[in-house]
Design a protein that fits this description.
homodimer, alpha/beta, 2 domains, 27% helix, Immunoglobulin-like, globular, 4-stranded antiparallel β-sheet, 8-stranded parallel β-barrel, 12 helices, TIM Barrel
Chain lengths: 491, 491
């Protein structure tokens, strides 16, 4: 079977080498000046060396005024830096580069926040204009595409929202009026960049808040964007202010509630919890005869294989990997070289998300060696890590609270060990990847009394070389119900 | 293809006539005395005449003390009323009857609520005992099965919850300790009712709140319940206190937040949004060799056909229809008679949910005639409604806010018109059921500029007879962008 995720795809006139995308991720690597700097260049060229099909550079403000420590493109002085960034992305590999452009409203430490119903019509018109101006600058800077941010807690998403409280023609009385400003932005941007330039739109296919909109509305939002000529829609979920955590004296942050978990699903979520949104819109597009607009799905999709299965099932056209590509930017290249087993796999512990929430530079705090601001480069190295002469000495023991603690010895590698992967088989089933980590111990929070567990580990180095599998540590967790132990049946 | 949903199924020793279930629904039909009364009998015998496979009678308190206006079974004096109810359910049709038993903690108008970490060990032991006692009484009353409520905001769910803050062996340190009390309840109930008596468990397969558990934990919760001999698990989602609306001076109510929308998905949600939970657990059971325990899925599953598709896909073993069977208790019978097109279809407007939230008797406020406390009975009547001599005079007009308003004339029927169904086709596609209603007008909130809509209606009477389809009203909603109208392409 063809590996669809490695197949080229065309977005408008733009040819992509494969169907793997880095969705826009906040990095907090830029300063208050809003300029492209070396850290930004290092972050994005890394993805290009990893052969990502399309890199969507992080949300860049269309505002003319200062807008905090993030990239800006609100005036012409910012173009040069972006031109340099795009050039370097192109120089480092096959990746194409899109720029995500964003408008957001004011927010205060008091908890007050500006909402779309507070905007005058002139302010609304200025926002539409600012999107057009920024898109034109993105094209001038050499970006291969522009992506309009209409997702999460930001201005255009708030117009789309079922919580839009305006009563005029830009308001929440109907889906038509909620769509008005986003539609005018699409028209304005298209008029400014021309019909051959790829425009993507990222929006929430489900708000994931009380009385928010869901897939039923999202189908029609996507249809409108398609009818206005969007070349792709990239589907997110949640990330709203309405359920954000409120801390006295701190401005609310829109990814701190349940809806934020739906944007970046943590380990407690199943894999790919948001794919049904793409699948629903794709089926709707098929019924409506819409074939031009491509659909990007995102959210805890672990590997190229998992993404390929989604494409094969016809649920989406392209796969966005955010945290997975942050953890290992070489993922597409490893997939192309048929070395998917050497991918350093995101554990979805959301340390990156917490860094963002705490206004710190975003890095992979679970898997990258402590001192790295970016993912380690793969050196030329054919030598795999090995276990000590007496083996990994892996053991599994029961904690008093019923959790299983697995420990093993450090492996040895001339260029250094990067980390360990731990695999587990329950009740004699298949071994499955449980986690990846830098340490030599792991606590399995899900191990339950009455079941048999087998664990094994392997070490990997910076080049992706793997050690042999360790021996297997076995444990049957005893039933906590002494008198009724026979009720708990181990298969 | 065999219609799986109409096929018999066995739960432990209990044979069900089909795979359609009424999940426990709050009715507020019982009084402060907690006794079975005529309204309760009328509500549940109606389902039996409709040929529902298994009726799960609403959550009944295991408490010995007063517990508000809901059914109780905390002492032997309540048995007689339940015995009468079961007898009448059996006398009225083929349905089997299960009783759902519940424990919940205290809550105050101040917003204060008791949580599981406030319970002494003796209180915990008393709760376990109370479940055993109530289950034994349910069996004595003649119920065909008992269902343990471990879902939503109630005591056993709060032990399972990732928010369980106890630090002892009943606490939140690990999934094992969170499972301890629910496991002891299972063991206690099984010891009291014997091994041949069917025990079901309803629990949340996803909490749908920030830092709640999800499907990953739910798989292991289901496995534990299966290992302890649960005959079915009935999967719900959400319904928690953690995101409930807070109103000064009112006790918080656990279905008022986003998680409550996931319990009873409103019209804005796609169909069957929670089926992936059942599908995930079913696949996990297959991998673990668990075949005894049946899986019930619920949540905005519209029709027997839709339920059958879920069963055919192997995503669940039985289908729970709550609001759909409230709207039309004759749904299973109509499916058996191949008259599914005569079902009065729930519109998921959640008027029933609002009645519950306002402490009012729960009825279908959208579809039942105003004066009915229960679903109308189908009389002997072969005469279908007809349109007036000059037709239904259906018309579709654009409101100034962009919504389409459809109006038509009342139909005529000698025994009275019950309601109308409206169907819509977008851009020349298939006609789809849009809504059912008692009035002769409808506002389509989703109609969008740049698209062509066709509407038609039909009337139905109390026997389910349908009028002919009305003529078709057509409207092309003009683009709101005068200068750019050509951008909005109608296919």
């Amino acid at each position: 079977m063809t590996n669809l995720i490695l197949a080229p795809i065309r977005i408008n006139q733009l040819a992509l080498a494969n169907r793997m995308i880095v969705p826009a991720m906040v990095t907090r690597l830029s300063g208050e000046d809003g300029l492209v700097n070396q850290a930004i260049i290092d972050r994005y060229t890394r993805f290009s060396r990893g052969e990502v099909g399309l890199i969507v550079v992080e949300a860049t403000a269309v505002h003319q005024s200062k807008s905090g420590p993030l990239l800006r493109l609100g005036s012409d002085e910012f173009i040069a830096g972006h031109r340099d960034l795009v050039q370097r992305i192109h120089d480092n590999g096959p990746s194409k580069a899109a720029l995500q452009i964003i408008h957001f409203l004011k927010i205060a430490r008091s908890g007050w926040r500006q909402t779309v119903d507070m905007l005058s019509k002139d302010e609304v018109k200025a926002i539409i204009q600012a999107y057009g101006d920024a898109a034109a600058r993105a094209r001038e800077a050499g970006y291969d595409a522009v992506e309009l941010h209409m997702a999460h807690a930001y201005t255009l998403s708030s117009f789309l929202s079922a919580h839009n409280k305006r009563r005029d023609e830009y308001g929440g009385r109907s889906l038509e009026t909620r769509l008005r400003v986003p539609s005018e932005v699409m028209l304005q941007v298209r008029a400014r960049v021309g019909k051959d330039y790829p425009i993507g739109v990222r929006f929430d296919a489900e708000e994931c808040i009380k009385d928010g909109y869901g897939l039923n509305d999202a189908k029609y939002i996507a249809l409108r964007l398609a009818q206005l000529g969007a070349d792709y829609v990239s589907l997110s979920a949640g990330g709203k202010f309405e359920d954000a955590k409120l801390e006295p004296g701190e401005a609310p942050y829109p990814y701190t509630g349940y809806s934020g978990d739906r944007t970046m699903p943590p380990a407690s979520f199943q894999d790919a919890p948001n794919v049904y949104l793409a699948a629903g819109i794709k089926a709707f597009f098929a019924a409506q005869g819409q074939t031009h607009t491509k659909i990007v799905t995102t959210g805890k999709i672990r590997t190229p294989s998992d993404g390929d299965a989604i494409l094969q099932a016809g649920q989406a056209d392209m796969i966005g990997f955010a945290r997975a590509l942050l953890a290992d930017p070489d993922m597409p290249k490893k997939a192309r070289l048929n070395r998917e087993h050497t991918i350093v796999r995101c554990v979805y512990g959301n340390v990156c998300k917490q860094l963002d929430e705490n206004f710190k530079q975003v890095r992979c705090g679970s898997l990258w060696p402590r001192e790295f601001l970016h993912a380690p480069e793969a050196p030329n190295d054919d030598i795999a890590p090995v276990w000590p002469a007496d083996g990994a000495s892996i053991s599994a023991k029961l904690n008093e609270d019923g959790r299983v603690r697995v420990t093993w010895k450090a492996a040895i590698d001339p260029q250094g060990v990067y980390g360990y992967e731990i695999f587990c088989a329950v009740n004699g089933g298949e071994f499955q990847h449980l986690s990846s980590l830098l340490t030599t111990n792991y606590v399995d929070e899900t191990a339950l009394a009455g079941n048999a567990y087998q664990y094994r580990v392997r070490a990997y180095d910076f080049a992706g070389n793997r050690s042999l599998d360790s021996a297997i540590a076995e444990i049957v967790v005893p039933a906590p119900f002494a008198a009724d132990a026979d009720v708990l049946k181990v298969r």
